[in-house]
Amino acid sequence: MTDFFKGIPAIKYEGPDSDNEFAFRHYNPDEIVMGKTMKEQLRFGAAYWHSFAWPGDDPFGGQTFDRPWFGNTLELAKLKADVAFEMFQILDVPYFCFHDADVRPEGATFAETTANLEAIVDYFAEKMDETGVKLLWGTANLFSHRRFMSGAATNPDPDIFAFSAATIKTCMDATMKLGGENYVLWGGREGYETLLNTDMGRERRQAGRMLQMVVDYKHKMGYKGAILIEPKPQEPTKHQYDYDVATVYGFLKDFGLEGEVQVNVEQGHAILAGHSFEHELALARELGIFGSIDMNRNDYQSGWDTDQFPNNVPEMALAYYEVLRAGGFKTGGTNFDSKLRRQSLDAEDLILAHVGGMDACAAGLKAAAAILEDGKLEAARNARYAGWDSANGAALMSDDLTTIHDRVLAQNLNPDPKSGRQERLENLVNKYF
Fold it and tell me: Which among 26, 99, 279, 354 is annotated as catalytic?
């Protein structure tokens, strides 16, 4: 045991009337929600990078956090793992997620870096056996190092493409060895700053080929988890090739991968793309590519991806409503891609941020389940489209323009519009919060 979280108790459920800030008010892991425990429905995961690797910097200021494990040695990486798994146990989160660069020191060569990763993977395996915590997903950091300033798969230098492919292989190997249920590709710099120096067609083909190789390797190695892409529109690049769910789906169709790859949707990225979180989740569900979610929120007065912990229950409810409509998580889950504010320096802050986020998600899940089980919202939606279930409505989807034209003339159609009843439905939904 370390002393970083010394004096902080294991967080337990005490109910909505509790005044204990080190307790859950809404997240009761054993409560049954739509046939599963809340723990099974939410499948919480903690993000290694924001919680344990981020130093508290921003575009205008440097490090604010002073953590005893900061440094580039295996010994400090193991200390970081010790602290991380203590937090996982305090919160009783069943999963965690990581990039390779979050967990291992950078070596002088690719071989040394890979050896460092393998050493930490072995250490993780021991910690996972001791605690029962599992890996939700692994991924490769192909954006922080200066070599990736022009992208990884989309880089104009083929040597960096090769380095990136080799790194992905090592991270997939690590994920598979630890029993990770998903492997995520997040293209932090797979985009462009200016079209003046960019060949978009070439870069898209490179990205498509990289993803095809990932899928091929998955099948070659017999990996049973899901391959996920995390859409993101911009920041830091001007435009990214995985802009949103719709863009990713078009990309998958273009390269014959729509049956192989799903999406990991982040709330903050949805907002940056000009969408709502529930829009992106609903579209992923409709397209059959919903996989997992990164949970956070943006500051709506900022144009930046601020990665704050979620606290807006109505937003969470509408998001989990789409998750439940999709049949719930299968291999995916709720990963807190959320970080403290750079002024929140204490160990207690890190625990309480997760407590608040987990409670907000739990309250949102319960509201979403109540809306879905009540059925009034779905009944209203179905009633709005009822005409399409009639014989005439169904025929429109197969008739041609001439047939439809003649029918409109014969029936002397002159239809009046019908109310969409938006305010009524907003009032209906609000009563569940």
Answer: 99
List residues forming the annotated binding site for Mg(2+). Answer: 230, 266, 269, 294, 305, 307, 337
Q: Which two tokens stand for residue 78?
A: 């193991």
What is the residue extent of each domain of the chain?
30-374, 379-430
What is the fold of 30-374? TIM Barrel (3.20.20)
Give the rounded percent of residues in the chain with a pLDDT score beyond 70. 100
pLDDT given for residue 187 in this prediction: 85
pLDDT at residue 341, as a whole number: 97
317 pLDDT tier (thresholds 50, 70, 90): very high
Q: Long-range pairs for 165-168 at CB < 8 Å and ≥24 separation?
A: 165/210, 165/213, 166/110, 167/100, 167/110, 167/140, 167/142, 168/140, 168/142, 168/210, 168/214
Interatomic CA distance for residues 142 and 166, integer angstroms: 11
**Of the listed 26, 50, 92, 102, which one is catalytic?**
102
Instruction: Give 55's Cβ-side CA count (13 Å radius).
Output: 11
DSSP labels for 160-218?
Answer: HHHHHHHHHHHHHHHHHHTT-SEEEE--TT-EES-GGG--HHHHHHHHHHHHHHHHHHH
Active-site residue 145, yes or no? no
pTM over 0.90: yes
Question: What's the confidence (pLDDT) of residue 393?
Answer: 94
pLDDT at 219: 98
Q: Which residues are annotated as a binding site?
A: 230, 266, 269, 294, 305, 307, 337
Catalytic residue status for 102: yes
